[in-house]
Design a protein that fits this description.
The protein has 20 helices and 27 strands. The chain folds into 3 domains: 295 residues, Polyphosphate kinase middle domain (polyphosphate kinase like, 2-Layer Sandwich), CATH 3.30.1840.10; 170 residues, Endonuclease, Chain A (2-Layer Sandwich); 176 residues, Endonuclease, Chain A (2-Layer Sandwich). By secondary structure, it is α/β, with parallel strands linked by helices. Strand 23 and strand 24 form a beta hairpin. Strands 14, 18, 19, 20, 21, 23, 24, 25, 26 and 27 form a 10-stranded mixed β-sheet that branches. Strands 10, 11, 12, 13, 15, 16, 17 and 22 form an 8-stranded mixed β-sheet that branches. A 6-stranded mixed β-sheet has the order 2-4-3-7-8-9, sandwiched between helices. Belongs to the polyphosphate kinase 1 (PPK1) family. Keywords: ATP-binding, Kinase, Magnesium, Metal-binding, Nucleotide-binding, Phosphoprotein, Transferase. Catalyzes the reversible transfer of the terminal phosphate of ATP to form a long-chain polyphosphate (polyP). It holds the Pfam family PP_kinase_N.
């Protein structure tokens, strides 16, 4: 059992060893403990019986925007390398794009339905839009007032047309004529040439013209769509850059020469514009015969869904603006005038084009998994003990090696794997394909509805089917989000299973960017449960009673509520209790209400929630015993860890699921226990204690619903991710852990 001392921002004292201390995290010679809640001893909260109204929860969409504010903070931090600040700025823009693509349509529809009599829907939409407008304005202010001058100070120049000298202008003209103009087709609007279909998030120009066209007509509006195949940032060659890193934006190149596309006409006004469309695929699975075919058909329409946001250059005239708003049927609140490129996401290209190590984070190379011995069969090691891999501090290669050994082991008979997000290039899929060719039975549960990965997954499904793998698409109406890999091997006269469970995806690229826990095991009960789940997903037969796994949508939510309620009952009985949960989002009302009730009964609760959180923490008379914190760092926090303690007993679970209603009721998700004392302590050390002790990159949710950045200690404070990187890069520590 883990013992919890009073909270402290100081690291727990440790003997002198060659391991950088993490706040509260054990070294090989110590056992770490979870810090307690600050403040007085928790006690049952007295709630006025005359006021039975449930505590109002926080708004989910505002919470999502608040998360992006925390990411934006990293773009503002001057201690972050310059190109990394730009990267964070681009990440915020990418997140906002997805927010509008997925979350904005219902709010907009409600506002439009209100018509000329604005009601609650209009007020909600406008309030949300105000928060988004404020964040976008701050983004462009940072870009123009801080990042662009900082680029120049470091010899990086994004040259506008007015800033280019004669030689540079000549080169840009030649580039335009050679590479750009042949791909541009301006469309003059008239009854025979209606407003063209403008794809989601594409770059376009609207132009107002004087004079008449070739037929003597005065059609004054033209639309110019910019092909996506063109790079958005172009590096000037050395002969005209004068020894500097000089770049031009594609939009600037086109603006400088756009008049040449309209010979005989005079441009009087023009503006960039970009429209964001609702892009969440909706397929009635009960009405389709082949889900894969239906989704592929839907992908062709995704780029032309309902318009939800319009971005234009800040100098766009009211005449052109009125024309665009009427065309896309958008209210003023959905309009964004921006002081710069209408798509900041494309500035990510600049990071790769400059690629100056002095302006980037020092390269992080994940270490070999400390629980695996090189040169020794992974199967034989798993027969001795389970193995955890903490990504990205440890390498995802350990998981790939597990699959590779299974593929080439003649005693392995069958491999089963779920596929949610593997990326467009995947060594895992290549290995599954090789396994089929080597005569092994391969079953792949491919989730075709993984948002924005549908096309890649359809392609993988077809590729695996083409070589003879058994491909299934899970259960109609549910997304298969569970991450499982199961290997069946003949050993002597019996079959033995080996499994991999993970909080994250089978994606080698994101495994270097996301924090996740991989669990390799030969535990007979756990792997038998995994086999039963695979059989259930393939056959859709009745699921047998599972011994170790909790499976959504059947029992995961019920089991979590039961654990919370059991902890609350123990607190009422005067026992020492604790709940610590790390996840990416907390929006499920049933789980939130259970946590609030447990906190009212005196349970100490710490919630480490990276993104959206609807639980109002630190509310007088209701949630004083609940703390919510969010840690934003170099890596994207992605692991899900659930810890419950009642008296002398404690349990720890890993999971693929966040505490969201969709995860509990509309997805196939897994949670599983970690029972090995050493592995459980390691997870507590590295995934819970380290983050509760973070005093540099953490934010706390206050009673007013706002997040407050943790004030660093005089010595700069402790950052969980940085401390874990220090810990894993120490060779002595790795040798001791592996031993």
């Amino acid at each position: 059992m883990t013992v919890f001392p009073p909270a402290s921002t100081e690291p727990v004292p440790v003997p002198e060893v060659a391991v950088p201390p993490v706040p509260g995290v054990a070294t090989p010679e110590t056992t770490s403990t979870l810090p307690e809640l600050a403040g007085p001893e928790p006690a049952p909260v007295v709630i006025d019986a005359a006021a039975p109204t449930p505590l109002a929860l926080l708004d989910r969409d505002r919470s999502i925007l608040a998360f992006n504010e925390r990411v934006f903070h990293w773009a503002r931090r001057e201690d972050v390398p310059l190109l990394e600040r730009l990267r964070y700025l681009c990440i915020v823009s990418s997140n906002l794009d997805e927010f509008f693509e997925v979350r904005a349509a219902p709010h907009l529809a409600g506002a439009l339905a209100d018509g000329d009599k604005p009601g609650e829907s209009t007020a909600t939409f406008e309030k949300l839009a105000d928060a988004a407008h404020e964040l976008v304005a701050r983004q462009y202010a940072l870009y123009n007032d801080a990042l662009i001058p900082a680029f120049a100070a470091n010899g990086i120049h994004l040259l506008s047309h007015g800033a280019r000298n004669h030689a540079q202008r000549k080169w840009v003209r030649d580039y335009f004529n050679r590479e750009v103009a042949p791909l541009l087709v301006p469309i003059g609007l008239d009854p025979a040439h209606p407003f063209p279909q403008v794809a989601n998030k594409s770059l376009n120009f609207i132009v107002r013209l004087q004079g008449t066209d070739a037929f003597g007509r005065e059609n004054e509006i033209a639309i110019l769509k910019v092909p996506r195949v063109l790079p958005r940032i172009i590096r000037l060659p050395a002969e005209v850059a004068r020894g500097r890193a000089s770049f031009v934006m594609l939009s600037s190149v086109i603006r400088a020469h756009m008049g040449e596309l309209f010979p005989g006409r005079q441009m009087t006004e023009f503006s960039q514009f970009r429209v964001t469309r609702h892009s969440d695929l909706a397929v009635d699975e009960d009405e389709v015969i082949n889900l894969r075919t239906a989704l592929r058909r839907g992908l062709t329409l995704r780029h032309y869904g309902q318009a939800v946001r319009l971005e234009v250059s800040s100098g766009c005239s009211q005449h052109l603006l009125d024309f665009l708003q009427k065309q896309f049927r958008l209210p003023d609140a959905a309009l964004y005038r921006v002081h710069g490129p209408v798509n900041l996401v494309r500035l990510m290209q600049l990071v790769d084009l400059v690629n100056d190590p002095a302006l980037l984070y020092s390269r992080w190379t994940p270490v070999q998994p400390t629980g695996l011995r090189s040169g020794v069969s992974i199967f034989s090691q798993l027969r001795e003990r389970d193995v955890l891999i903490h990504q990205p501090f440890e390498s995802f290669d350990g998981v790939v090696d597990f699959l590779r050994e299974a593929v080439h082991d003649p005693q392995v008979l069958a491999i089963k794997q779920t596929i949610y997000r593997t990326g467009s290039e995947s060594v895992m899929i290549d290995l599954l394909t090789e396994a089929v060719r080597l005569g092994k039975e391969v079953t792949a549960v491919v989730e075709l509805k993984a948002r924005f990965d549908e096309e890649a997954n359809i392609n993988w499904a077809e590729a695996l089917e083409s070589v003879g793998a058994q491909v299934v698409y899970g259960v109609v109406g549910l997304k298969t989000h569970a991450k499982m890999l199961l290997v069946t091997r003949r050993e002597g006269g019996r079959l033995r299973r080996y499994g991999h469970l993970s909080t994250g995806n089978y994606n080698a690229r994101t495994a270097r960017l996301y924090t996740d826990i991989s669990h390799l095991t030969a535990d007979a009960a756990l792997t038998a449960d995994m086999d039963a789940v695979f059989a259930h997903l393939a056959s859709q037969n009745q699921l047998p009673r599972l011994k170790r796994l909790w499976l959504a949508p059947f029992e995961l939510q019920d089991q979590l509520v039961a654990r919370i309620e059991a902890t609350a009952a123990a607190a009422r009985a005067g026992q020492d209790t604790r709940i610590v949960v790390k996840m990416n989002a907390l929006t499920d009302e049933r789980l939130i209400r259970a946590l609030i009730a447990a906190g009212s009964d005196g349970v100490r609760i710490d919630l480490i929630v990276r993104g959206a959180c609807m639980l109002p923490a630190q509310q007088p008379g209701a949630t004083e015993n609940i703390r919510v914190r969010s840690v934003i760092g170099r890596f994207l926090e992605h692991s899900r860890v659930f810890y419950f303690r009642t008296g002398d007993a404690d349990e720890l679970y890993l999971s693929s699921a966040d505490w969201m209603t969709r995860n509990m009721l509309r997805r196939v998700e897994l949670a599983w226990p970690v029972r090995d004392p050493a592995l459980r302590q390691r997870i507590i050390d590295e995934c819970l204690v380290a983050y509760l002790g973070d005093s540099r990159d953490a934010w706390t949710l206050d009673a007013d619903g706002r997040y407050r950045c943790t004030e660093p200690a005089p010595d700069g404070g402790h950052a969980a991710q940085a401390a874990l990187m220090d810990r894993y890069r120490m060779p002595g520590r790795r040798r001791e852990r592996a031993a």
